[in-house]
Specification:
By secondary structure, the protein is α+β, with helices and mostly antiparallel strands. Helices cover 54% and strands 12% of the residues. The protein has one domain: Orthogonal Bundle (Arc Repressor Mutant, subunit A).
């Protein structure tokens, strides 16, 4: 059975891609950046991270940009930015829907 393309991202997937928008990073750098972005709320274990990096690279969402001292550096591709932007928009719609009900007085 063929692997299904990404339709939505997990929180960890989202933050890995977000981390790779600004500059190339290696695995440990990604883990540190995600922890910093989220004030430690989101942590990503090494096994999960390297599985995600492998999948993202295979799907063309990230690209290997450099290899230095055994560390692989990755950066978001145009396709990765498209997927990340779609997820951002999806999350914004969810927040907006929730705000309309929870803060705006709409009934369920």
């Amino acid at each position: 059975m063929a692997r299904k393309k990404l339709e939505t991202l997990t929180e960890q997937m989202y933050y890995v891609l977000l981390s790779l928008t600004r500059e190339p990073r290696h695995g440990y750098g990604i883990m540190q950046d995600v922890a910093g972005l989220t004030d430690g709320r989101v942590t990503i274990g090494a096994g999960t991270l390297y599985a995600l990096l492998s999948r993202f690279e295979a799907e063309g969402l990230i690209a290997l940009t450099d290899m230095e001292e055994g560390r692989k550096y990755y950066l978001l591709t145009a396709e990765g930015k498209r997927v990340l932007t779609e997820e951002y928009d999806r999350l914004r719609r969810q927040v907006s829907d929730g705000a309309a009900i929870l803060e705006g007085g709409k009934t369920l």
